[in-house]
């Protein structure tokens, strides 16, 4: 009947490619010719995977956990889709958890770390859980993949290219003719620092002077905080890059209350996309990030570790961040009016 190694040898590919074909994984890149060649060898050898026996033999549950902060956050939508698609292709179940309940002594943590109950964990940023939880995770063989950070247990982390996102958003505003552009973001969290770096690089490349980031919290309140700081400082940028789409919502409300018209007085681009961006008036321009690919890559990384195969960690930069132009941006006003 053959094995995956035998299929890989005959087809001239890696075992991970064979596994992707067998499991129907959508996010492993290969040509149609390669896929057809692998399928032909599978048919020739009469290979039939026995997932139930394999799981029993290796004492696996076929379940992975995904832990994020505030699972209701709309920016996770595409990442969840990528995780579920990749898990479904492997016949795995997914348990969702909120990091707000992942604390030392919690029932959720006990179930996650229970003997054989979870095959792998996808965790958004190590900083969301306390030191004792991290110690528990390090002490167990269950693979943990950090996403949207730049560190992880044993170097196992995956992140989107936040610097590229900041550059794309800023370049769009520069191309419209803006020169007074600012960046509003949260505290010194790594993705925010990277997005500001992309903003600053785009400004310098255009011969413009970047400003320090306007420091705020997170969520919709951050947009309100950013505009409040701008008004208090008496600076009058014509355009603003906002760290995330939720902060953009708060900024819209604050601009309305202050009598600032978007985009006539201030053009706005937010990083990350969500359905609500299209529902705003005017619709909010955003930068779409490869969140589905991030989720799928995290599942595939867990699978590779469980199968003792090599896998690549680091930035998920394919596809690249893409600007979704909407009516919240326009050329700068020829005669700016006072706010």
From TrEMBL:
Taxonomic superkingdom: Bacteria
Q: What is its EC number?
A: 5.1.1.1
User: What keyword terms does UniProt attach to this protein?
Assistant: DNA-binding, Isomerase, Transcription, Transcription regulation
Q: Which Pfam families does this chain map to?
A: LacI (PF00356), Peripla_BP_3 (PF13377)
Q: What GO molecular function annotations does the UniProt record carry, in alphabetical order? A: alanine racemase activity; DNA-binding transcription factor activity; transcription cis-regulatory region binding
Name the top EC class: isomerase
Concerning PROSITE patterns, the annotation shows: HTH_LACI_2
Q: Which InterPro entries match?
A: HTH_LacI, LacI/GalR-like_sensor, Lambda_DNA-bd_dom_sf, Peripla_BP_I
Which ranges carry the HTH lacI-type domain? 3-58
This chain's protein is named: Transcriptional regulator, LacI family
Q: Which organism is it from?
A: Beutenbergia cavernae (strain ATCC BAA-8 / DSM 12333 / CCUG 43141 / JCM 11478 / NBRC 16432 / NCIMB 13614 / HKI 0122)
């Amino acid at each position: 009947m053959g094995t995956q190694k035998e299929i890989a040898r005959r087809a001239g590919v890696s075992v991970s490619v064979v596994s992707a074909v067998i499991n129907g994984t959508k996010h492993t890149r290969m040509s149609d010719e390669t896929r057809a060649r692998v399928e032909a060898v599978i048919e020739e050898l009469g290979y039939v995977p026995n997932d139930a026996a394999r799981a029993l033999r290796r004492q696996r549950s076929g379940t992975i956990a995904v832990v994020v902060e505030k699972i209701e956050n709309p920016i996770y939508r595409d990442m969840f889709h990528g995780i579920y698609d990749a898990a479904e292709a492997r016949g795995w179940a997914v348990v969702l958890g909120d990091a707000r309940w992942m604390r030392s002594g919690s029932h959720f943590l006990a179930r996650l770390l229970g003997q054989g109950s979870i095959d792998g964990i996808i965790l958004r940023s190590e900083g969301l859980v306390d030191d004792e939880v991290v110690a528990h995770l390090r002490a167990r063989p269950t693979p943990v993949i950090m996403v949207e950070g730049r560190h992880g247990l044993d170097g196992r982390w995956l992140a989107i290219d936040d610097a590229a996102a900041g550059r794309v958003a800023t370049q769009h505003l520069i191309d419209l003719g803006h020169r007074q552009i600012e960046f509003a973001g949260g505290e010194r969290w790594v993705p925010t620092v990277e997005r500001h770096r992309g903003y600053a690089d785009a400004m310098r490349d255009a011969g413009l002077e970047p400003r320090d980031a306007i420091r705020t919290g997170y969520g919709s309140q951050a947009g309100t905080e950013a505009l409040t700081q701008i008004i208090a400082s008496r600076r009058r940028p014509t355009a603003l890059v906002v760290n995330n789409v939720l902060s953009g919502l708060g900024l819209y409300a604050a601009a309305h209350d202050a009598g600032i018209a978007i985009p006539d007085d201030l053009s706005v681009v937010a990083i990350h996309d969500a359905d609500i961006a299209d529902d705003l008036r005017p619709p909010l321009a955003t930068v779409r990030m490869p969140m589905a690919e991030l989720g799928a890559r995290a599942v595939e990384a867990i699978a590779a570790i469980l199968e003792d195969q090599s896998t690549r960690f680091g930035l998920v930069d394919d596809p690249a961040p893409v600007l979704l132009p909407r009516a919240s941006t326009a050329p700068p006003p020829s005669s700016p009016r006072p706010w």
